[in-house]
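FIELD: query
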Amino acid sequence: MAGRALPAPELPTGTVTVRVMREAVGNDVPGVSVQVTVAGAAPATAETDGAGRAEFPGLPPGAEGRAEVEVDGERLVSEPFLVPASGGLRVILISGIAEAAAERAAEEARLASEPAVPGAVVLGGNSRIIMEFQEDALRVFYLLEIVNGASSRVDIGGPFLLDLPTGASGAATLQGSSPLATIRGDRLTVTGPFPPGATSVQLGFEMPYDSATVVMEQPFPVPFQNVTVAVEQVGALTLQSAQLTESSQVRADDGTAYLMASGPALPAGGALVLELGNLPVHSQTPRNVALVLAAAALAFGVWLSVTRRPVVEVRDRAALVRRRDTLLSQLAPLEARHRSGTETEAQGARRRRLLTELEHIYGELDEAAPSGPQGGGEGVAA
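FIELD: result
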C-alpha cells in the first residue's frame, strides 16, 4: 500500500525514515532494502532494522522524493513527498493488504455460519453526520458504524430501526453501505444478526426548509458514542445544539469550510437536536438527489475520519482496529475484481478511497500504540 509522508519535526532536518510492515502495525519487516529517490540526487538505499525502519539522513530540503521497497514480490511505492526545510518525514509502507482483506472475508464467512447470540450494539465513535448545500438545497448524510464488540454475531432482538427527521425526503442508502441496510420512506432498517466489529451504514437525504432557520431532531435507537456533526459553512450559518459541547471551523483538502461540532455519548433513545440558522435562500422544488452528490460527502467523510480534529479526541486502538477490519471487509471483493480485470471505473475509485483510508488508519494505529515494550514492534514509530 502506498504510504503518505507524515511530518516529523523531531527528526533532524533532511531526514526521512521509512517503516516497512506486513499486513498490520507491529508486524515489522526487517532486512529488506528500501530505496529513496530524490530529485537532483542519486538514489539512496538502506536496509530496514529490527523495527522495520530504514533511515535516510541528509536529503536536500525542498526536493521531491519517493520511497519504494519490494516485500514478498509486492512492490510498494510511496506517494511523492517534499523534504521539509525544517525537521524530517516518516513514511509507512504496508504489504499484504489484499491478502489481509481476503483473510477477513474468510473469517466473516466462518462467523456467518455460526449461530448468533443475544447481545447489543452501539453507534461507534467513527459515526458522523455531514450536511452540505448544493443548488440551494440542504443535503444530509449519515455515515454510521453499528458496532458489535462481541467476538460472535449478536441478535439485538429485532432489526435496527431509525426513523429519519420529520420532513426528510429522497432518502437512499449510499455505495459502501452494508447490504443489511434498506430504506423505505423515511425509515432505515438494518436487519441482524450483526457481525463482530463495525457494520457500515451510509445514507443520504434532503431536508427541505422554507425559512432561515431549521430544527432537525434525530432520535437514535442505540447508544451513540462521541457524536460528531460537520456542516458546510455557507455565509453566516450557525449551528446550535444542547448535545454538542465543542465546535470549531475546519477546511477539507479542497478548501471547503465546515463548521464541526462534537459532544458526549447519547443514551439509547436519546435525540440529537440541531438548529441551523442563517440558512441561504433555496428553491422549494423537492429533489430525490441524495445519491447524486454522495461521492463528495463520502470524500469529506473519509477526510474527517483520518484528519486530526481539534474537538474530537484521537480514537482508541479498539475503535481503530474495528474501522480497519470494516475497511478490509469492504476491500476484499473490490480487490478480487481488480485482480481478475473485471473492475469498473467506479469500483476502482472506491478501492483507492478505501486504500487511502486504510493507510491513515494504519498510521493512527502506529501513533496510538501503547508506550513501553509491547512485543512484535508495537509502539515503535515509523
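FIELD: remark
The first strand starts at residue 6 and ends at 8.
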